[in-house]
Amino acid sequence: MVVLGVVSPQYILPLVPICKTQIPPSSSETQYLTRRKALMFTSSLVSSFIYTSHHSATAFQVDEFQRDEDRIVQLFEETSPSVVFIKGLELAKGSNGSTTVLANDENAKVEGTGSGFIWDKFGHIVTNYHVIAKLATDQSGLQRCKVSLVNAKGGSIAKVAKIVGVDPAYDLAVLKVDVEGDEVKPISVGTSRGLRVGQSCFAIGNPYGFENTLTTGVVSGLGREIPAPNGAAIKGAIQTDAAINAGNSGGPLIDSSGHVIGVNTATFTRRGSGMSSGVNFAIPIDTVIRTIPYLIVYGTAYKDRY
């Protein structure tokens, strides 16, 4: 008969020493344990390194993103005081035939809006010819051009501007406002030579009348050809995907250093849609640099002087 749970006394004594006595491992077992401990330590170390590296990389990415964001903010803050808002006005004739521009633009119809930028401390402003074309061709004496700008102290001022010179072949014009008693900030002029497709660019202007609007993009293409207001072709235009809409015309296209590389001029719009396709164009600043001095001095481009 077998009784469960009963252990013969002679088997108890041999079992006790086995629980208490430590048998030294063989050399092969020692090597195995040493390797196992080393692997466990290495695994722990690698896990810790991966964890630390992941968090370091994330922190680095956040820091880089913050620096890029701060750089764009600084770019806008430094450049926007040099950008102006241009408003084309048509005055209403009074009962006695006289015309007046009132401070709040009463009795004046807004014909269109555009942008421009301060060229020098004397109050010369660069813009597109098509922005002020009605004033340039006005025969009625009812057209006016009003410019809103910021002085060096950050104060907003509005001035009636006069046309100094125009070049319809390159869609460029120079206005002048009286800045006596006001210090203005000319824009920083760069170069369009050496531009590369893919580099960042920024447009500042007044699309649809929304002042001081910043849009960002890249240089999408170089050496493009766009139509000029006089029917000629403007060659060497810069293509960009930085949004340019009605009211952006005449404003600056700037690079990452805050230097003007072009004058925002046109956007490709699908017929009947009224929407920008993201294909936008700017006149290269090197063309502007060659043209503007003649417009300031002679009122016309060099080729039209004689």
Automatic annotation (TrEMBL):
Belongs to the peptidase S1C family. It comes from Nicotiana attenuata (Coyote tobacco). Gene3D superfamilies: Trypsin-like serine proteases. One of its GO terms (biological process) is proteolysis. This is Protease do-like 5, chloroplastic. The gene is DEGP5. One of its GO terms (molecular function) is serine-type endopeptidase activity. SUPFAM superfamilies: Trypsin-like serine proteases. Keywords: Hydrolase, Protease.
